[in-house]
Every structure is written in structure tokens, then in C-alpha cells.
Design a protein that fits this description.
alpha+beta; Double Stranded RNA Binding Domain; 2 domains; seven-stranded mixed beta sheet; two-stranded antiparallel ribbon; 9 strands; disordered N terminus
Length: about 190
């Protein structure tokens, strides 16, 4: 076998595997007419969790971790958190959502070698008997969505939005790593000014 073909095949295989790595999908949009360098303070204006409005003074440890991740990103941009009563330059509203996807696959026979059907047998009372086989596979995915709205209170206008989506698993810490990665990605393109 030609060594170049082998290397090319391995490289394509690694790219395909790397492309399958699950991670958050992040989409951002900022108003290009806004001077973002003028924002020096921000406050959380509220939280909407799965369609239910939650007050600014929410003390949930889980939501608190998300707020901390946002605070770290904004602090890195030179924007500090203040209270709503301090008339911040920017408001941040957080939306959480969850969507469950389930799919069921059912097969009654599987193609075998060279297109022949695979036959299953069961041993009963000294005799092998042909049996009908059915295979049912259920897939469940839980997609989490985190939306961060940035608003300019003086103009009562939305100036930026980040939408972060990721497939969530049973490991809470892994889910927070996904959230942190998505939030960092969302604020990576935060406009620094005109």
C-alpha cells in the first residue's frame, strides 16, 4: 500500500472523528451601531428559566454558577457588576431552556454478508428452531439552551444576544464545563469599540 494514501486516509479519519466532538454551538449578534466601549458597568436584570420568570435576587446555586461565568467574561472586558439601583450601562437577562429529543429505531432483520438475511435460532428441547428477531433501540438527547440578552437601559434597546446550545448529559460538572466553554465563546467576539 502506498504510504501517502495511508497517511491521507488516517488524516481524513482523524478529521472526521474530531468533527464529531460534541461541544456547545454558539451564535452571537451585536448591534454594529452601538459603541460597546462606553459600557463600564452591568447588572443582571432577571432570569427566565424554562418560560418561568425568576427574580433578580434568585439564590439558586446552579444559576449562581452561570452568573459567575458571565461575570468572569464581562470582567475580562473591563465591565464590572453593579446593582440595578446603581443605574448600570448594560443589562444582562438570562434565559434557560431544555428540549428532550427521543427517537426509536426498530429492525426485524438485519442484512448479512453479501445481502443475505441473518437468521436467528433458539435451542429448545434438543432442536434448533428459527426465531424472528426484533431489535429496538431508543435514543434520548437533552439539548440545553442558554440565551444571554444584553440591553442598553438608557435607550431601552437590545444591543446583543448570544445563543448557546449543547447536548447535556447526566454529569453536572461536564454540563457546567460545556456552559463555561459556550459563554467564553460568546464573549470572545464582544465588540471592544468602533
Amino acid at each position: 500500500m502506498n504510504i501517502r494514501l495511508l497517511i491521507a486516509g488516517l488524516a481524513l479519519g482523524l478529521l472526521a472523528v474530531g468533527g464529531c466532538a460534541a461541544g456547545p454551538k454558539v451564535v452571537t449578534d451585536f448591534d454594529p451601531s452601538v459603541e460597546f466601549s462606553a459600557f463600564h458597568t452591568y447588572a443582571f436584570s432577571g432570569i427566565s428559566d424554562r418560560g418561568r420568570e425568576i427574580g433578580v435576587s434568585d439564590h439558586s446555586p446552579l444559576r449562581g454558577r452561570i452568573k459567575q461565568m458571565i461575570d468572569e467574561q464581562l470582567a475580562a472586558k473591563g465591565i464590572r457588576q453593579v446593582g440595578l439601583e446603581d443605574h448600570p450601562d448594560l443589562l444582562v437577562h438570562i434565559f434557560y431552556g431544555m428540549k428532550d429529543d427521543r427517537s426509536v429505531e426498530k429492525t426485524s432483520s438485519m442484512p448479512g454478508f453479501l445481502g443475505r438475511q441473518v437468521q436467528a435460532y433458539e435451542y429448545q428441547e434438543g432442536t434448533w428452531t428459527s426465531i424472528k428477531t426484533t431489535r429496538v433501540i431508543t435514543h434520548e438527547d437533552h439539548e440545553g439552551t442558554l440565551i444571554l440578552d444584553l440591553a442598553q437601559p438608557s435607550k431601552k434597546a437590545l444591543v446583543g444576544r448570544a445563543v448557546i446550545r449543547a447536548v447535556l448529559g447526566d454529569d453536572l460538572e461536564e454540563n457546567f464545563k460545556q456552559a463555561n466553554k459556550g459563554i467564553a465563546e460568546a464573549f470572545k467576539d464582544y465588540p471592544s469599540g468602533k
